[in-house]
């Protein structure tokens, strides 16, 4: 593990009109770490992640990627820095097959004529197959349309898609929210698998048992402030009690 | 209590079973449309063996397929992205009329222009109409149904206004007329143009990033957007394509009829949509193919032609075509049901 964190967000501030969504939030993510990001609704989790993924621009504060100052003003900047976001509602096109979804927006092109590129479907299919095998995602054929897949398989494709392009940091917004119990297990296995392959992951979730299962460290936000930043410890009951007390405001490690 | 509970469940199970069986047989959409087309051909050949396969009759069918096939390809591009284009029928009239005016009369003090320049000008004009549709749908957020309905009225009205309702007639030996009337080895030149454009658009939809993005927008526009697809640009492109294909049809019909007529192409947009739907295009977007819509147009063409040969009343012809359309849509729904 390298000493310097892969992502540092320092004193991030963001307001929407009169609402202060984030007040001087500082967050770090280490190499090969799974960080759980929790908090009540409107605590600022999604806003913070949208700043990192380039969907929002912060009012103040700095972002460092591998100790180098980064200027992220749109999703493409963030993607170029190796940051990928997996959306809660899968963000897949159900009428397209698995391979088309994995490569959507970044198709491999055989040759190009102005804005029109002829796709290299064979290499896309082969690479998509490799990706599924590497991540141990069980899908019979990359030519299956996404609409034929189960919820868990779809989320796996969405996560796989995020990792397909050398992503160093993967942000997951509620990856287990819409899934059955069996599918949740598989997705959590997938997250652990990604970690062992060297990815650094930030996972937003309301399901504390999922956070407990896969994450190394937890950050709790409340009303746009960081109230806790602690490694995972204790058994699930203690963990849950402690985190909930941070979420509801009974405890605060960073109060002035 | 128990009986009351189990009875409806069982019947539902049985009906699901039959629906599944039925849709399993009908799974490969294009294969089925092809089979339907071939059966129709065999049937009409059997019913009127002397007339149906005559080159002159086949040429009639091919011209029909060209007209509605091209319009349906344009609709396909728009419908896959989840839109609709109701302006194409009126656009054939307007572009036909403008073509005739540019070639025959000239505008104001400008003398008649040459054939190629006139064609280029109408294509550019209709491209601008497509741009307007695309811009309104993507930037102004106006429903495509409404914005193209506006053009449906305006284009038809404008065509009648600038001609004062009278057709603009070409001289009989005007060279432009060979585009719509000429044949090569008894195959209408129009039809050859259709084949070329169909191949190009099919490759575009299937093998290019552009085509993939068109389907992706129809499947999940938000997913396409966050994946970095230039959603608006591509939707605008599809409306431009539809308008330009309508323009091609307008030019060819003007040539075929030997005149630019403001009344040509009435309700053609609906026939084009019907051809697309019969050929497996889903009006919800995300689904459909070029071979499918051409086959849809061909089925309609062969049916209309065959029914004329069989002396079926033209009123009844419409009833039968309506039934075919409805059956195609029900079929589509059953297929979806299986997918779920």
Q: Low-confidence runs of chain B (pLDDT<50, min 5 residues)?
A: 1-9
- Please tally the helical runs of chain B, counting DSSP H or I stretches of 4 or more residues: 14
**Which overall shape of chain A is indicated by the principal axes computed on the Cα atoms?**
globular
CATH class of the domain at 7-97 and 166-248 in chain A: Alpha Beta
Describe the secondary structure blueprint for this structure.
The complex is a heterodimer of chains A (256) and B (340).
Chain A: E1 7-16, E2 19-29, E3 34-39, H1 45-52, E4 60-65, E5 68-70, H2 75-80, E6 83-86, H3 98-102, E7 109-113, E8 116-119, H4 121-134, H5 151-163, E9 169-173, H6 181-196, E10 200-204, H7 208-214, E11 217-222, E12 225-231, H8 236-248
Parallel strand pairs in A: 3-10, 3-11, 6-9, 9-10
Antiparallel strand pairs in A: 1-2, 1-4, 4-5, 7-8, 11-12
Helix pairs in contact in A: 5-6
Chain B: H1 2-25, H2 29-47, H3 55-80, H4 88-105, H5 115-138, H6 144-163, E1 168-169, H7 178-181, E2 183-184, E3 187-188, H8 189-207, H9 209-219, H10 221-226, H11 231-257, E4 259-260, H12 268-278, H13 290-309, H14 314-339
Antiparallel strand pairs in B: 1-4, 2-3
């Amino acid at each position: 593990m390298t000493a310097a964190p892969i992502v540092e967000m320092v004193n991030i501030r963001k307001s929407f009109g009169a609402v202060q969504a984030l007040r001087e939030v500082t967050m770090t993510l280490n190499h090969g770490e799974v960080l759980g990001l929790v908090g009540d609704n409107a605590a600022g989790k999604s806003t913070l992640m949208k700043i990192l993924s380039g969907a929002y621009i912060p009012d103040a504060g700095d972002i460092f990627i591998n100790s180098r100052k980064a200027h992220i003003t749109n999703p493409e900047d963030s993607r170029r820095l190796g940051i990928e976001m997996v959306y809660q509602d899968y963000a897949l096109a159900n009428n397209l097959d698995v391979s088309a979804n994995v490569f959507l927006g970044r198709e491999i092109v055989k040759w190009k004529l102005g804005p029109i590129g002829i796709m290299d479907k064979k290499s896309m299919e082969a690479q998509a197959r490799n990706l599924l095998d590497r991540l141990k995602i069980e899908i019979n054929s990359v030519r299956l349309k996404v609409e034929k897949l189960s919820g868990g398989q779809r989320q796996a494709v969405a996560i796989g898609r995020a990792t397909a392009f050398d992503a160093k940091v993967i942000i997951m917004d509620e990856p287990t929210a819409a899934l059955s119990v069996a599918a949740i297990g598989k997705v959590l296995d997938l997250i652990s698998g990604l970690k062992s392959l060297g990815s650094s992951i930030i996972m937003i979730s309301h399901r504390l048992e999922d956070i407990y299962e896969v994450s190394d460290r937890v950050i709790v936000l409340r009303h746009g402030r960081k109230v806790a930043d602690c490694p995972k410890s204790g058994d699930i009951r203690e963990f849950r009690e402690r985190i909930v007390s941070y979420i509801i405001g009974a405890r605060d490690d960073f109060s002035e | 209590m128990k009986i009351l509970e189990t009875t409806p469940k069982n019947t539902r199970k049985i009906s699901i079973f039959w629906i599944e069986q039925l849709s399993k047989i009908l799974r490969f959409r294009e294969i089925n449309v092809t089979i339907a087309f071939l059966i129709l051909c065999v049937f009409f050949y059997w019913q009127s063996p002397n007339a149906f396969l005559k080159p002159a009759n086949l040429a009639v069918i091919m011209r029909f397929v060209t007209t509605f096939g091209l319009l349906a390809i344009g609709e396909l591009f728009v419908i896959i992205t989840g839109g609709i284009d109701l302006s194409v029928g009126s656009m054939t009239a307007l572009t036909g009329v403008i073509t005739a005016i540019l070639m025959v009369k000239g505008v104001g003090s400008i003398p008649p222009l040459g054939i190629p320049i006139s064609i280029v000008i109408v294509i550019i004009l209709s491209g601008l109409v497509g741009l307007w549709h695309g811009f309104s749908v993507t930037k102004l957020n106006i429903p495509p149904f409404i914005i193209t309905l506006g053009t449906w009225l305006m284009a038809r009205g404008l065509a009648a206004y600038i001609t004062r309702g009278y057709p603009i007639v070409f001289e009989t030996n005007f060279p432009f007329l060979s585009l719509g009337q000429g044949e090569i080895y008894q195959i209408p030149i129009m039809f050859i143009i259709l084949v070329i454009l169909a191949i190009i658009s099919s490759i575009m939809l299937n093998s290019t990033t552009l085509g993939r993005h068109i389907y992706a927008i129809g499947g999940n526009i938000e997913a396409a957007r966050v994946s970095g697809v230039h959603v608006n640009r591509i939707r605008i492109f599809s409306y431009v394509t539809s308008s330009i294909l309508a323009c091609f049809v307008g030019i060819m019909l003007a040539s075929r009829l030997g005149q630019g007529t403001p009344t040509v192409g009435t309700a053609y947009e609906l026939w084009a949509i019907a051809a697309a739907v019969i050929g497996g295009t889903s009006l919800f977007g995300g689904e459909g193919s070029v071979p499918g819509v051409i086959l849809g147009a061909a089925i309609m063409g062969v049916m209309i032609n065959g029914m004329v040969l069989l002396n079926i009343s033209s009123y009844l012809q419409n009833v039968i075509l309506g039934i075919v359309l409805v059956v195609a849509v029900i079929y589509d729904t059953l297929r979806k049901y299986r997918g779920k």
